[in-house]
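Section 3.1: Structural characterization of target chains.
Under the original work plan, the team committed to producing a structural model for every single-chain target entering the pipeline before any wet-lab resources were allocated. The record below documents one such target. The sequence was received from the expression subgroup and is listed exactly as submitted; it comprises 450 residues.
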Amino acid sequence: MKYELYNYEIFPMIFPAGEDVKITVKTLGGRVSFSGEYTVSVHRLDSGSPGQSFSASNRTDYTLTANEEGNLVFTYNASAEGELFVRIHKDGQRLTQLCVYALADDLARRIPLMGDLHLHTIRSDGNEIPAVTAANHRKRGCDFVVITDHGRYYPSLEARAAFEGVNTALNILPGEEVHLPETDTHIVNAGGLFSVNGLIESTANYSETGGEYSKRAIIEGAPDIVPAEQYKKEIDEIEASLTDCPENVNSRWYAVCVWAFEKIREADGLGIFAHPYWISDMWQMPEAFTYYMLEKHPFDAFEVLGGENYYEQNGFQTAIYYEEYSKGRVHPVVGSTDCHWSCELNRNYDICSTIVFAEQNERKSIITAIKDGYSVAVDTISKEYRLVGEFRLQKYASFLMENYFPIHHSQAQMDGELMRLYTLGEATAEEVNLISARSEKLMKKFILTK
């Protein structure tokens, strides 16, 4: 957390550009409240150094007297989107510099959410039960998570059921990592309303539940189980249509991927092409296959970051993302831990995440925002974080990482610990509800939406 955030609070911190906004600055940390007269200047970060003539015309100055609560209050109207420095002086000496961000209309209608779309539990090859996995990722700052056990959808439903009737601040989406016959490609079904694994009798979701409907769908009217001969026929038809598939690309694998992504979209989910540069003995996917996938783009989002902390995975996936970008192929991005042990002792516990700019913390809104390109992948392998995505969104996300999420994560840590205790029978639903309500209040305090 930045030094300034321990001692001062400014709110709203994020607001629409082009509107009059009342901004309050408050002292924290036992500091004496503001008293008397102060000079406040607001500077646009993108306008250059203060000594430059153009920059001088893009600042606003105030002479303020502290109010009865000991706060400084002023009204500001940002002329354009971007970060602003708020500098406070007393008797010619600068006391502090705080940061705020003005947003254009499209982003001003959205809230920043941090999440993880690829998590494993003890139901496949992870280390904790689904509910504890979810709670632990709230502790690390997630607003939403997707439990994606290998070949299994029902663990995500188990995590959701564990908090049924409890108003948690964490949105637990249904999901699974899809493993289908005749391909080694790893695919994530994030938020789908029914299981793709559950459609095939040879998958773990079917064999472990006997195809029970309630363990493979959360809606009425999900597709019936697909018999093996029908599955083969549908894959045959897709493969036969691939007239431009290079000889060094496994057309059968690709046809299965197309089938899977079509089913995920039918389930109203987000189909994610996961970690092609993960080194599983060798690269998870042959590079020729990865290039063909990116060229044809049958998926909804590219897991550009996630899983491991060596350069060859995140570094190569980032490089190929920008290489694709230069060709005019802009893939929606996500970053996920692919976490198998949701404890801070795990070196990969908090290495990646996704910031999604969604209209609300709701399944459909999150999926739509990612598909529409309103997401940034976050690499936190080291404290010097890295961001992948559109430059405009990176600038906003960088501001959030420095100024908003440290405050947000402090609250999330309390939420998550109470959620974990609730799963163990050591906290009540009322206690979880109470602390979660503070999360909503905190967000509304710092973020002013249109």
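The mean pLDDT is 95.
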